[in-house]
Amino acid sequence: MFSNAAEYAIKACIWIALNSSEDRYVTINEIIEHTHLPRAFTAKTLQTLAKNKIVNSIKGPNGGFCIMHNKPEDISLLAIVQAIDGNGLIHNCVLGLDVCSDIKPCPAHPKFKPIRNEITNFLMNTSLKDLTRGIHEKEVFLKL
What we know:
Blueprint: H1 4-19, H2 28-35, H3 39-51, E1 56-58, E2 64-66, H4 77-85, H5 88-91, H6 109-125, H7 128-132
Antiparallel strand pairs: 1-2
């Protein structure tokens, strides 16, 4: 449903949220080692997340990433996806047509509109904190 970059961003954000704090930044090496995500793509994704103020980053030998100013409960899944993929998931035609709206719908529009609305609500109302809840207790699993 998401691009590879958005999936990587979500996984990296979950790992950062679980393992960083105000006084502990996680390094790109730690993130890659524990998430098994590709280095170059993950580094670029994390730069984009930092630019969009989803994660905080510090450069240099003691640098890394954390979620400090943004609390995990304040970061929606929508914010992460939009930072990486833009608004296409919410606004683009499911069939890829340039013109598709309630006024001039594509053949799939009437059936897909309620699904898109549910997806949008899910993304808006699911926080990074929601995604981390239960991992330590092994109630939910994220194979990293």
